[in-house]
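Obj: model holo form, ligand = adenosine-5'-diphosphate.
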Amino acid sequence: MFFGCKNLSFSYYEKKVLTNINLDVKKGEFVGLVGSNGSGKSTLLKLLCGILFPQEGEVIIKDQKLDEHNRIKVGYIFQNPENQIIGVTVEEDVAFGLENIGVPREKMLERIEWALSTVGLEGLNHADPNALSGGQKQRLAIASILAMEPEIILMDEPTSMLDPKGRNEIYKVIRNLREIGETIIIASHHYSDLEHVDKIIALNDGEIVYEGEKDQFYKSNVIQSELPFNEKIKRQFNADLKELVDEICR
Ligand code: ADP
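Output (holo structure tokens):
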């Protein structure tokens, strides 16, 4: 298995929040994780990247159980870009993780340049991260993860703190990441975040209630979620039509 989990269950003290979760994510796949607030999305992502450990089951990365040695292969992007900035300059921020794992200086500079250009922050190496816009800060967070060359990137509602411009910047970055074959899981309840996913996994009350194709998910009504524009229009049209027919038949 490239990445996923088997029979994963998790409780915060007495409170069970995830029950028997099984995931199988293929290399290069773009997966949307959806569910209402409190359904367990963040907890699942934290288990998948090794910030939390499950009481039952296991997370698998490239056929191995996730542990403190290989969890570096899983990158995690937080909801709030403010929480992820460490460096005094953009370049230092990206360098931080690389220094920690002992990447040689020359290689480090190469990776920093590549990561910054992939997220569209090239040339801002010496800028103060705190002076960046929300979208730029989140792109910097992505660059810092990307430079570590993870096997998979997990994003926990990466656009929810951003304005429309910032959100569009992140969509562009995600498109770039897909083009270079990155594997991504994005937790969100915004339809626009999920427009290009290969597959949807829906959680309800800590259990997977849907796994499959995106269009089918929006038709299925398996959980309440923001609908794509064409589905909204279709439903409104059907409702209006029904009202009209009812009126004619009355
Ligand atoms: P989501 O990301 O879908 O909103 P979460 O994973 O944040 O869901 O939360 C799932 C459940 O776990 C919720 O009932 C939430 O209140 C609870 N929970 C989340 N974090 C903690 C924590 N640190 N301690 C106790 N309960 C928590």
